[in-house]
Amino acid sequence: MCGIFGMLGQNAVADTLKALKTLEYRGYDSAGIAVKDGNGIKLFKTVGRVENLKDAIPSEVYGTLAIGHTRWATHGEVCQGNAHPFYSADKNFAIVHNGIIENHLSLKYQLSSVGVDFSSQTDSETVAHLLQKNYKNSVLDSVLATANQLEGSFAIVVANTYDDNLYAIKNKSPLVVGINRDGAYFCSDVRCLSRWVDKVAVAPDNVVAVANRQSVAFYDFKGNPVSVKFFAVENAEEISGADGDYMLKEILEIPEKIRQAKQGYFKSGGLSLPAKTVHRVKRIYLIGCGTAYNSGLEAAAIARKMLSIDVIPVIASEFIYDNYPVDSYTLAFFISQSGETADTIRAVEKVREQGGFTYAVTNTQASSLCFVCDKVKNIYADGEYAVASTKAYNCQLVTLLLLLTDVSYLKGAIDDETRKKIVESIDVLPTAIDKVLSNSYQIAKLAEEIKDSSAVFFIGRTADYPTACEGSLKLKEISYIHSEAYPAGELKHGTLALMEKGVTVVAIACDSLQIDKMALSISEVATRGAKVVCVSPYSFENTALLSIPVVNRYLYGILSVVPLQLLAYYVAKRLGRDVDKPRNLAKSVTVE
Ligand code: M6R
After folding, report:
1. How many angstroms does the Cα of residue 43 sit away from the middle of ligand 1?
2. Which one of 78, 157, 191, 208 has the fewest beta carbons within 10 angstroms of its own beta carbon?
3. Is residue 368 lining ligand 1, measured as CB closer than 6 Å?
4. Distance CA 569, CA 548 (A)
């Protein structure tokens, strides 16, 4: 993970700090900056947030070349010594790195055996020492030689004292390059750059980029020029500076984003696949991680009600190393909020290699996922910055429902009337969700009652089970309360042993065909002393009911998750957690 940034231009220190604040969602264990001035390269780094770093930089520090980093620790504990940037021993190079240098142990061994001392436990520091070792009289040659020695995933920005250029090395970790009239920029995230530049390029894998204040040139690792296209980028919204928590702001945006997701889907051409291609499809995968996987799980449960072919949700990191069948009859949807999740991108590569069709479902256009997939559908959720994903989940579900409805129609599994009914039914969702949001005081009260639970279990059947998974993920990641999700019928096969006073069970009961069975499951856990919260349009005995409006049966997943998102938020707030930046996590996971 981690956020990296580098720039050549006026106010490099102030702008790099601004960029790091924006990139903080990618990691907030530590932050650091290296600035080049007439006397060499100066480093400043601190543990914790970018705010701490700002305080550590004397106001007189000035330069027109700076690189910066926000860290999510993978190799080495969270401490100042492991914070980026890293110097080479002679201080003529400084680097920041996002990714993992997989062969760092053997490189470290080689460097140590010729007397290089390491100041950190990180894999990244190796790169700075290699640059020094490889330097003869050309920085480009040293960068190329270093690039050729690295294995793994890396986006690295390099400052040096020998020439005035800024260098970058890229393979499998995101790197966006921007230029304007007065400078050049390297960054992990296109949204961060759009405030300074109107043209960006996404660096391809296995390239070295060399920037001066007028232009950027790209080379493959042998030093041959590579042509890379720049494209216009719209100014994205300012990421920093929301009042209050992003998570709450993003939940409150859900009704409007759902409208936009539906409108955008049709404006951008719907499924946009030829009927002939869809006819051939014999197997559909829905692949993602975390919340994005849960939306695949829910979409698959809905698609199973329409389609008679296999619709299989798979966790991306499992898909990569397991033997799921793929052939030219395979259509795979890759779901990702950030479009940068390494596991998901590796899974795309695998499906492509084996001849399947790859279809990205994301709200981050110009992300790496968009470049590797055959087709891309925007979910129109706009930027999401709280680590806990909320509005993206709802928009993923709206978009997947529309995509799978179109697939079902083209395959003759549903008729035009059914298809129209499903599409129209989405229009009631924003009002239904507004109703849930207006009940937030009740959810906040409930949060107070359950915040000291020893564990919280989420249960549901059929299409309510994925909602249970998402509710559980939300709660555990921001409140740190132990939580698990189960298909309700599975409890009696073991988990029931954990039910006792102090445990909370959240039952999602929207499937009208499962009401009696859910009532039974609720009774089983309540009898054993668990407190039961129920999310349902129906009422159940022995529960605290979070009532939701009745909607089309395909839409409950999009609606019933909202009280769970709010419940997680209020529980975490009441426990005094940092809801937007939970411990040990980061928004975008760009390492496998
Ligand atoms: O950016 P992506 O949607 O690919 O991210 C996938 C997961 O890392 C993400 O959903 C994660 O589980 C969230 N923190 C959940 O709230």
Report:
1. 32
2. 78
3. no
4. 18
